[in-house]
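Methods: example folding runs. The two proteins below were folded one after another, and each record is reproduced exactly as written to the output file, sequence line first and structure-token line second.
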Amino acid sequence: MSGSARIEVTTAVAGNWRDVERLFGRSGASNGCWCQYWILGAEYTRRDRSQNKRDLARQIGSGAAGLVAYRDGEPVGWARFAPRSELDWLLKRFSGYDFGQEAAWSLSCFFIARTARGEGVMAQLINYAADWGRDHETVIEGYPVDTSVDGATRNVFPGVLPAFLDAGFIERGRLSMDRAVVASTPDRAPRKHGVASR
């Protein structure tokens, strides 16, 4: 992190929708997805991108959609953070995996501004979610890519495995050879000091 810049993380709510909109830009984060992939799958590409945008605005307005990271007051990072039960495509695509009966929350997708990549923004988002899980006695799951696997996907929007392990998550299984399932449980989630909230 350069200079005196400090990363702060907060829950995405209707009041900071404009910040998310500015962060995602005209491209809608990635090819107009507006973070709808784990809900719709490829269907997000088959409809008008403005509908994806409207859906994310509605989801944020509901109060359970994601996290926003700020650097010196400017939005620089996003993470989809919502109950696993709301991620229809995740559950359908990996229906052969036993997620169990826990009412877990999923930290399933990230978008970091190009100007802030390599500055630990993803780590701060992960740490915030782990702390939230501890405070709310809730299991937090992630589905990061293990880039050490030969032939691993280069599409690392679900995050990368070392970032989750560094935050105290433990691996529970694999959705595929290169996609881990990791979890932070309330009894294993030490508060990550230095993660500021707004």
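Second run, written to the same file directly after the first:
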Amino acid sequence: MKKVPFYSFLVTKTSLALAEVIYIMVITTFIYQKTESALIASMFPLFQAIANLVAGLLSPLIYIKFPFSKLFMSLPGFRAILLTLLLIGFEAIITHIYVLLIHVLIISFVGGLEKPILCSLIPKIVLKDDLVKANGSISVTSQSAQIAGYSFTGLSVLKFGHYPTLFFNIVLVWIAVLCIFITSKYIIENDEKVTENQSRWELMKEGWIFLWKNSTLRMVTLMDVIEGVAGSIWIGAITLVYVKEALNQGEQWWGFINASYYIGSIIGGLLTLLLAKLIQKHLIVSMAVGSLLFSLFTLIYGLTSIPILALLLCVAMGPAYQIRDVAQQTAFQINIESQHLPKVYASQGILLSLVTGFSIFLMGFISDMIGVRAVYILGSILIFISAVLSLSLIQVGKRKSFDGDLNL
């Protein structure tokens, strides 16, 4: 592992993970306090989703025009400038909520272009044998940053106000930009060339074509889609209903459940680092075992009425999820050339965003019509199906001679 570029990128991802949580909480709470309207406050994540969708659709046209290193540096820098302008003009902008929402829309669009670029960097600065360790390290630090953000941002807003908290957010973003500048010095360009007869439509389709034609990417994406549907069982509203109806506890247990899951995720990330070499050698087995354990723990969680057992299960789910997730990310990264990753990640992101939006509605409907326990039972079944599908990658690997990469 190249230590300087990796650790500078690790700081980048950690800073951005914390900054993103602070940004979301500051803007959401501010809009709600200003308007006292949950509907208008909900327009913030809606605008973010729309901007990310448009960015995902247009990103191939942008990625093909500019070298990776320029996009890697310029997109976070441009977003940092937009956030700084938001801070400078905060007093003026806050008097016009819709101006704020439009500014948020632009920032979210740039962020939507930036995310696939950042996700694609790891294979460019890390050797294949170190991918699990690298992905695990980023997972641990990002999860820890998010926990800190959710834990302290609300308190900071109450004690210091929106403006100082947003200022800290800007500091974090500029730290990330500085680290990106350091990392960019170690990137070796391997950009894709455009043939003269390629139309814009063909360029926009390329990410989807890679996802469909590459059987490994197709299967991993299908697993991600299924798990994306299942992942909606953990949204706040469903968890709150579960706490009240299944555990017969007060709202404070909602926080206990979330904290337990985050603690488990951190433990899982550390376990992934400890077992990095073993997971790297047995990616498919790691996916399957992680998914099977996650499915089992989710099923028991949905059926239990014992609060302490529910907390312990949340902690246990963390390692299962992290091992599965890191193994899937690594399998995805090693089965496509790095120059194609940004547009493939962009296409996958569009698909997962659409699935997540639909599944949130689906799980809410099932919870209301059948009961909250049915939601977790369905989630466990979907995760189990994903585990079974992961085993089919063994045959894919044998047919495509991926043994050297997947070490089946």
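Comment on the second run: Residues 366 and 375 are 6 Å apart (CA to CA).
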